[in-house]
Design goal:
Chain lengths: ~190, ~200
Amino acid sequence: MKILRATDVTFVRDGVPLVAPFSLSLDAGAAAEIVQPSTRAASIAARLCAAIVKPSRGVIYVGEFETRLQPPQAKRLVGFVDAGGFEGDAHALRCEVAFRADVWNLDKAAAQSRATEILDALGDGPYARAIALALVAEVALVVLDQPQRRFVGRVRKLVPEAAIVHTLVGATAALSAPVPASAPAVR
Amino acid sequence: MNEFRATVAIVRRHIDRHFAIDWAMQFGIVAAIAFAFTQTFAHPLFPLAIASVLAAASAAERSHAESLRRLTFFAMPLYGRQLARAHAIAPSLLALAIPAGYAAGSIARTHEFPAALLATMFGAALVSTLVALSSIFRDGLRASLYVVLAAIVGVAVTLPFVLQADYGLALSAALAAIAAFFALRAFGETLARYDPLPLSS
């Protein structure tokens, strides 16, 4: 089953392209990377895949949901990890897990125990904490914004059935490149 | 998805110790203004204008704007209108400190404050707040214009009461309800259209 389908996607603000166009198609259990020319472009590409930002051109489906038309349904399937990670301390993390449990309508105790399990597996640190937050709900797609390489493999072990897409900064993509700018490495 | 549970969680996130401090400070400052100037500003238009302007400024305050622009809220599986309702509750409660403070200051000075004026001030403050919330997701001149618009709309809905029209209070309340409804819808639209981009590197 296709978890993520992105076709000729780009993001333009005030006539200026901010993301190198990309296309990719991802099944459950597969992984892909999106290469972008800058950290900002990579973050925007990650947010596009997580239905947080709407594409200016092209179309993205998460599962069967188009991210521009049905963002809440699409977001429910996505665990998004921001490049900055989660900077709060252990108490702030517990509060954030409880908050997410409320918003995603999860059992609070189960969510706290899931977050603890994930942190035990990943080790502590802002990015690991952000992954723990992203994975407290059951997700079909994990979007990692500019992770360290080791985290991609570790997330795969935690959620073997989920599709994983991660962004990285590289010289291969240019903002004005024709579609597709970066060939995704689909495993 | 339990929308009520999500709404309560978001409201609880906004209503913290800082919120209580802001409420108390706003109440105290407006009470002091009312105590000093209630006899100078005897015409009902003055307290209503004060409520509208302060409510608009308070809702658009920049640190408040930064907290609402946090990425966390946009990664949540909620529609813009659901997020708008949840985000609007805390600022609306904060806005109530303005008429409450003005009434308290006025009563401390003159031992009276008309209930109809207090009710109209509540309406004006709520409408201004809800209109001004949309300024949070805009920058520069457009954000400032939204704040000005919020203050104007807040005063405008009170005109039937100020001009002592027949059923002025009821008319003002009806206008406030209509304006608040459309302001909240516009805020929901604003949230649905907003793209939280990372800062330029």
